[in-house]
Amino acid sequence: MFDADRKRVYVVDDDLSVRASLCALLSAHGFRPAAFSSAEDFLRGFEVENSLCVFLDLRMGGMGGMALQKRLEAKGIKIPIVILTAHGDVPLAVQAIKAGAVDFIEKPGSEAQLLAALDAAANILADRPQANVPQGVVAERLSRLTSREREVLEHLVLGMTNKHIADELGISQRTVEIHRARIREKMEARGLSDLIRMMR
Fold first, then answer.
1. Which of 58, 145, 147, 155 is deepest in the core (most CB within 10 A)?
2. Cis previous bond, 108, omega within 30
3. In what order do the strands lie in the sheet with 32-36?
């Protein structure tokens, strides 16, 4: 699954507790974490060689995660990016996925989510493209959705929060959550990032 040489994982987040807990988890799984409290420090101190990916916070003092993502792309630096986001930043996280991020994880993120993101990064570095679901299969899965679930899905991939979707469709947030769970199940998606890729 993971190339033994590609064990360096960067954590760029201005929250010390996030850096500490993520680095502890990475170390426990045999990775070599390197933490930075700002995008600027990261740009000065990282090395592309033997790097697996960057866990990148969206909102930080100074340069934010989206700006850093664009800066790396402009420099031609190909390192997989996993976005770390607070709940309210889901619309921004959706933009980051569309701009090429591997995945996004709502803080604090589970161990399973973090390891799945590392696995996805390893696949990208090994030139194994992320499994693109054929359009015919996506169409078949979409046909399983009710018209209300389709509406919720369309709003989700625009990056709207549950509250916004509930307001827009005149339903409760709890109903939106139930629809989201059913959409994930019927579309066979692990999360929102999978849905975004399928709906591109």
1. 58
2. yes
3. 32-36, 8-12, 51-57, 81-85, 103-106
Residue with tokens 């990056």, as numbered in its chain: 159
What pLDDT does residue 12 have?
Answer: 93
Q: Are residues 43 and 66 in the same domain?
A: yes
pTM: 0.66
Give the length of the chain.
200
Q: How far is CA 188 from CA 18, 104, 120, 138, 184, in A?
A: 30, 18, 17, 10, 6
Distance CA 187, CA 197 (A): 12
28-39 pLDDT, tens per residue? 988 999 999 999
Shared domain for 153 and 108, answered yes or no, is no
Indicate whether 21 and 67 sit together in one domain: yes
90-132 pLDDT, tens digit each? 777 777 777 788 888 888 778 888 888 888 888 777 765 555 6
Q: Which helix (H) or strand (E) element contains residue 136?
A: helix 135-142
Please give the angle made by the CA atoms of 145, 146 and 151, to the nearest 5 degrees: 90
